[in-house]
Each structure stands twice: as C-alpha cells, then as structure tokens.
C-alpha cells in the first residue's frame, strides 16, 4: 500500500500563486507517473499535469505556461507550482501516483485525499 499526503492548498487572490506538495510513502519500488488532477463543483475530475520518472511532463491546455510540475525521485514527492491563478482554477486538487511495490509487479494507482484551492478576491 502507498499513502499520499498533500499540502499547500488554500485561498488566494486572482493572479496569485500557490504551491502544492504531495509525499508518497509505503511499499514503493518505483513510481512511474506522478500527477495532479482537479475537480470543481459539478464537474468531472480532470488532469492538470503529470510527470514521468524520466521527467517528461504533460499539462492541460488551460494551465500551460502558468503551472509547473516537478518531482524528487529520491524523496517520492511531487510538487505543483501554480502561478497567475484564475477563479476558474478553483477546485479540489488530487495527487495521483502510479507505482510498483516490486520490480515484477504491475503498476497500481493511488490517490490523495484532496486539497482545496480557492481563487477569489
């Protein structure tokens, strides 16, 4: 099992910045993909950004140029730096990892509990 602990959400004014962090712990041999998703009220959960173990990144079009995802493979952490925040970025943000407990095992998906980000004046 893998546990994910998120931090860094909160209330920020439009144009402001926030940094989300997520730390993975438990039985981990490797983490293939780490990422952030978000879910706004009344909407489906959507991808925000992902990063592979070789540091290849992927971003939703709506956050390109404003958000930056990074990871530390030695600490099993993933961060999301969010700049130029807009009211439409308001959502619960979820950390996601796809990890292996053994070299021969298949990847398993894990989700964090979610952290609220509210962008409002």
Give descriptors for this structure.
0% helix; seven-stranded mixed β-sheet; 11 strands
What topology does this entry show?
Elements: E1 2-7, E2 10-12, E3 18-26, E4 30-39, E5 46-52, E6 57-59, E7 67-72, E8 77-82, E9 91-100, E10 108-111, E11 115-119
Parallel strand pairs: 2-11
Antiparallel strand pairs: 1-3, 3-8, 4-5, 4-9, 5-6, 7-8, 9-10, 9-11
Question: What can you see in these coordinates?
Answer:
The protein is mainly beta and 121 residues long. The chain is built from no helices and 11 strands. The strands form 2 sheets. Strands 2, 4, 5, 6, 9, 10 and 11 form a 7-stranded mixed β-sheet that branches. Strands 1-3-8-7 form a 4-stranded antiparallel β-sheet, with no helix packed on it. It is elongated and about 50 Å long.
Q: Regions with pLDDT < 50 over 5+ consecutive residues?
A: none
- How confident overall, as mean pLDDT? 96
What is the β-strand count? 11
- Helical residue percent? under 10%
User: What Rg, in angstroms, do the CA atoms define?
Assistant: 14 Å
Strand and helix order: EEEEEEEEEEE
Tell the overall outline. elongated
Q: How far from one another are the termini?
A: 40 Å
The biggest sheet, with number of strands, parallel, antiparallel or mixed sense and barrel status, is: 7 strands, mixed
Alpha plus pi helix count: 0
């Amino acid at each position: 099992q893998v546990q994910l602990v998120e931090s860094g959400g909160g209330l920020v004014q439009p144009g402001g910045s926030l940094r989300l962090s997520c730390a993975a712990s438990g039985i981990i041999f490797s983490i293939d993909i780490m990422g952030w998703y978000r879910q706004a009220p009344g909407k489906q959960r959507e991808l925000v950004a992902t990063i592979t173990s070789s540091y290849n990144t992927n971003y939703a079009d709506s956050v390109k140029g404003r958000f930056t995802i990074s990871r530390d493979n030695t600490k099993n952490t993933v961060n999301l730096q969010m700049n130029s925040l807009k009211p439409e970025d308001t959502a619960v943000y979820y950390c996601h990892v796809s990890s292996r407990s053994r070299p021969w095992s298949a990847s398993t998906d894990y989700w964090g509990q979610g952290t609220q980000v509210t962008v409002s004046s």
